[in-house]
Amino acid sequence: MIFQPTDKAKRILVADREFLARGLKPTLFGDAFHNSMRASWPAFFAGFAVYFLAMNLIFATLFQLGGDCIANARPGSFTDKFFFSVETLATVGYGDMHPADVYAHLIVTVEIFTGLSTLAVFTGLIFARFARPRARVIFADALALGPHDGRAMLMARLANARHSAVTEAEAELWFIHAEDTQEGRRYVRFHPLKLTQERNPIFALSWTLFHPIDAESPLQGLSSEDLAAMEARFLLVFNGHDEASGQRLIVRRAYMAADLRFGHVFSDIVTPAQQEGDPPEVDYRKIHLTEAAAP
């Protein structure tokens, strides 16, 4: 197949940042499975409904071209042929109307094959969508940069919104920025940020990640103005083994330079027990809250 690029711009989303892409060959049907998995449930069923309606309109038109080829259908009635097509495509077959000649039998044969194939495909897609693991991880809306344990730290926080634990949890934090080369060309650089603890044996409630701002950190000495000029972004990637589904979970969250709060730390979301014997309280409503660090 010859690749034929197009000048039409297409909006794409990469790491929560929008781009206009040109020169790509459209892949609406060539990548139908991927598009079906990415679509929301309302969009998925809306697309199925449009397909179902279009197929029945096509077959109803073919029956209409055959004249009065459907027994017990009103002469010339496109409506009767449309609903006969619906019954045939769904393999229902109420028996009120049936093919009356060879032409109608041929069209019915093709339609039944199409209906069985469609049922198999959409059943598989629905199962794949339900079986796909989805992590309910809450990411804090911002990053904090402030003191922790006597050192300057970049902090990110996430929480598990499900009651089941995630084992073998791992997190990666990346610093992404634009940089001009000596030749004057602008490139995007990716720097992994070393974390004090990048693995968590049991991720059940919340987890705060810490990156020390020291001589080895690419963030050393950078201000908010510097980060804005560098078009800086941060990418947090989380993955782990979900005990409930037995599958691997992968989820990510991107942050812009404006989402970094200098001189702040995250507010505590765990309240100790007020009385002996009572369990501590975890308030997920505070997951996004930060406060100015003590001078």
UniProtKB/TrEMBL annotation:
InterPro entries in alphabetical order: Ig_E-set (IPR014756), IRK_C (IPR041647), K_chnl_dom (IPR013099), K_chnl_inward-rec_Kir (IPR016449), K_chnl_inward-rec_Kir_cyto (IPR013518)
Domain called Inward rectifier potassium channel C-terminal: residue spans: 138-291
GO BP: potassium ion import across plasma membrane; regulation of monoatomic ion transmembrane transport
GO molecular function, one term: inward rectifier potassium channel activity
GO cellular component terms listed in the entry, alphabetical order: monoatomic ion channel complex; plasma membrane
Assigned keywords, A-Z: Ion channel, Ion transport, Membrane, Potassium, Potassium transport, Transmembrane, Transmembrane helix, Transport, Voltage-gated channel
Superkingdom of source: Bacteria
TM annotation in the entry: 43-65, 102-128
SUPFAM superfamilies: E set domains (SSF81296), Voltage-gated potassium channels (SSF81324)
Gene3D superfamilies (alphabetical): 1.10.287.70, G protein-activated inward rectifier potassium channel 1
Topology of this chain in the membrane: Multi-pass membrane protein
Residue ranges of every copy of the Potassium channel domain listed in the record: 58-130
Cellular compartments annotated: Membrane
UniProt protein name: Inward rectifier potassium channel
Organism (species): Rhodoblastus acidophilus
